[in-house]
């Protein structure tokens, strides 16, 4: 009796140790996957930043060329060309947006997956959605902060202009009592 209960306790202890070890390995695997995804995200962000900088430099060069061309032909025809180019530019921005959204949208092929693979795929999609929600939240907070800073700076500018206008009325040169000061 005593031997059986002791054997049972030892078996439970071994099973518990195995479970703990399995959980540790799963946790380590999750951390490794998370680190890989973070690394991929960082490289994507770096590439995106580099691409945007290159686009910005190219756009500036194009704008400089357009300005030079506009100065060379300051006629109504040049104005019409400028208006047409702006309309085309909006279209390209839309195309860029659809391209980016197409890149982000992944095809969902789940017909050939078994139950375990479906659960894994669902978990992966949930984590991806969670990451997107975190990025969305961060961007919203950044936008709020920027709006606040803009309103703060606008208030400073208006206060500065008010002070400037009152100083000009009192201390500047002007006619006072029929005589120039």
From TrEMBL:
Region (Disordered) location: 35-68, 159-181
InterPro entries in alphabetical order: TNNT, Troponin, Troponin_sf
Biased composition (Basic and acidic residues): 35-66
One Pfam family recorded for the sequence: Troponin
Xref: SUPFAM superfamilies: Troponin coil-coiled subunits
Entry keywords, A to Z: Muscle protein, Phosphoprotein
Bias (Basic residues) ranges: 163-173
Keyword check for Cell inner membrane: no
GO BP: cardiac muscle contraction; regulation of muscle contraction; sarcomere organization
GO molecular function: tropomyosin binding; troponin C binding; troponin I binding
A cellular component term, taken from the record's GO annotations: troponin complex
Record-stated family: Belongs to the troponin T family.
Function: Troponin T is the tropomyosin-binding subunit of troponin, the thin filament regulatory complex which confers calcium-sensitivity to striated muscle actomyosin ATPase activity.
The protein, known as: TNNT2 protein
């Amino acid at each position: 009796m005593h031997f059986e209960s002791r054997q049972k306790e030892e078996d439970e202890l071994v099973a518990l140790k195995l479970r703990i070890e399995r959980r540790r390995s799963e946790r380590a695997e999750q951390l490794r996957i998370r680190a890989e995804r973070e690394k991929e995200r960082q490289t994507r962000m770096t590439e995106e930043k580099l691409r945007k900088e290159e686009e910005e430099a190219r756009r500036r060069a194009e704008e400089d060329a357009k300005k030079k061309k506009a100065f060379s032909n300051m006629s109504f025809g040049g104005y019409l060309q400028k208006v047409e180019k702006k309309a085309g530019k909006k279209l390209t921005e839309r195309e860029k947006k659809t391209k980016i959204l197409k890149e982000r949208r992944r095809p969902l092929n789940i017909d050939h997956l078994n139950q375990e693979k479906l659960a894994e795929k669902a978990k992966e999609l949930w984590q991806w959605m969670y990451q997107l929600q975190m990025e969305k939240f961060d961007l919203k907070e950044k936008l709020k902060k920027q709006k606040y800073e803009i309103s703060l700076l606008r208030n400073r500018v208006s206060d500065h202009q008010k002070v400037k206008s009152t100083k000009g009325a009192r201390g500047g040169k002007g006619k006072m009592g029929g005589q120039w000061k």
